[in-house]
Amino acid sequence: MIKIIIIFILLINIILLYSLDLEPTTFEEIVLKDDRVWLIEFYSSMCGSCKEFEPIWNKIEISMKSIVTGKINVDTSAGSKLANQLGVFNEGIPNIKLYKNQLVDNAISIMAGEELSAKAIIQSVRRLTTDLTRRDDG
Length: 138
Hints:
Elements: H1 2-16, E1 20-21, H2 27-32, E2 38-43, H3 48-63, E3 68-73, H4 77-85, H5 88-91, E4 95-99, E5 108-112, H6 118-137
Parallel strand pairs: 1-3, 2-3
Antiparallel strand pairs: 2-4, 4-5
Helix pairs in contact: 3-6
């Protein structure tokens, strides 16, 4: 039953082309076991920098249609616990990580508390995605 719900949520995300608000409890099942590339933003609704970053994130979502995007709210206890496990708080928020069915410690950090433009982040994501594809092809 949970797999049907997960598939339904993923389909809605694809149709709407907006970030999927991920639950930390399903992060491993949805993101780490998926063959697609995921770009995950870790944010806090109380963080000024995160609020300033929101328009940039929206541009990234629109420009990167071949990548599934998701968000983890670190304000919740589960989101905070996951962010802590992933080292997000050591790097700062907002924080973006790129995953492609890899273990958490192999995640590629795109941005961690840095001031970057949407264009710079998109270029980094495209470069890293190309690198991931090359690794998969052997």
